[in-house]
Amino acid sequence: MMSLQKITPAWIKRIGLVTVIGLFLAGVVFWGGFNWALESTNTEEFCISCHEMKENVFKEYQSTVHYTNRTGVRATCPDCHVPKEWGPKMIRKIQASNEVWHKLLGTIDTPEKFNAKRAQLAQNEWKRMKANDSQECRNCHRYDYMDFTEQGNRAAKKHPQAFAEGMTCIDCHKGIAHQLPAIDQHIGKQNEGAVEISHGEKPAEKATVEEKK
Amino acid sequence: MRFIPALALAAAVLLAGAGSAAAQEVVESLRGKAAITDTSRTDVMFRPEKEQEPIPRNFQKQPPLIPHSIKGYNITQNFNKCMDCHSRERAEETGATKVAKSHYLDREDKKLTNISPRRYFCMQCHVPQFDAKPLVENTYKPAARKGE
């Protein structure tokens, strides 16, 4: 007991060992609780508890390969829309408070309103993925793990070329899980003046939609 | 005397039952001869072919077939997935076949500055190719090409 007395720091003696252990346990409970609460907002169930998500983007995503496929591997909402790393995840979660605010305002509470905002929403997400080098795609799809010989001719030709040019997944793979907004493809009067998508050749998306009203 | 109508009724019911049983054996629905309680046996599911060499055209001006998978490729009011590679602007970079000049004509053969709206739905004419065996024998011969 004498030796234990000697090595115990003064500040512990001052507040008492029981208090220290109590604080430690409180910390564990607080941190665990915080993470539990955070992770419960990181589920598909949570995302589609808002009808804005359930009636629009979730429905569109259900017919895509990330929802239904041969092997039964599924990428759910947070797999693509929330970074896995702690820091970026916190930043994204704080940004998401804006989304909660607009949920309360009812900015996109009908499909018509949603579609009117779709161009802006899509561009926000493209910008985010371009900035983080398509981080969420690369959580599963790694360029350096790809076997090009297993890919189709078009993919096998384009992928090495694109990666060598420093392009990132989202440069080409837009609208793979949700419907695209109106895109000006320069094929006539169709969608003239709408959003233009670059395929990585231009530095950033030309924002033709007003950012804020 | 009273039992006769009852007997006749029983006979009628029996006959009707036998008749309908016979009818059930004959009728064959689209799901085949499988009994209603059984799972119908289907042939191997149709699978679109993946990448392959283009099948040559059978006649002049035949819309070429699509020699690649088009799974998940949508043509909507907002976006035409085919034109993402095949449009005049994009074809060179993507290495895809460029939209033919005929797509720039209206129905009076007047030249338009861009693709005619009546050509917007690519898959009205172009379909993915598939090595389907002809259902009936076919002796079709294309007309001779110009100058042949």
Biggest β-sheet of chain B, characterized?
Answer: none
Indicate the multimeric state.
heterodimer
The helix fraction of chain B, in percent, is 10-25%
Q: Give the terminus-to-terminus CA distance of chain B.
A: 93 Å
Judged by helices, strands and strand pairing, the structural class of chain A is mainly alpha
Q: Could you tell me the radius of gyration of chain A in angstroms?
A: 24 Å
Describe the protein in words.
The complex is a heterodimer of chains A (213) and B (148). Chain A is an all-alpha fold. The N and C termini of chain A lie far apart (71 Å). Chain A contains eleven helices and no strands. In chain A, 55% of the residues lie in helices and 0% in strands. By secondary structure, chain B is mainly α. In chain B, 24% of the residues lie in helices and 0% in strands. Chain B has three helices and no strands. Chain B has helices at residues 3-26, 83-86, 88-94. Chain B starts with a helix and ends in a 54-residue tail after the last helix. The mean pLDDT of chain B is 80. Classes of the chains: A mainly alpha (213), B mainly alpha (148). Chains A and B meet through helix 10 of A and helix 3 of B.
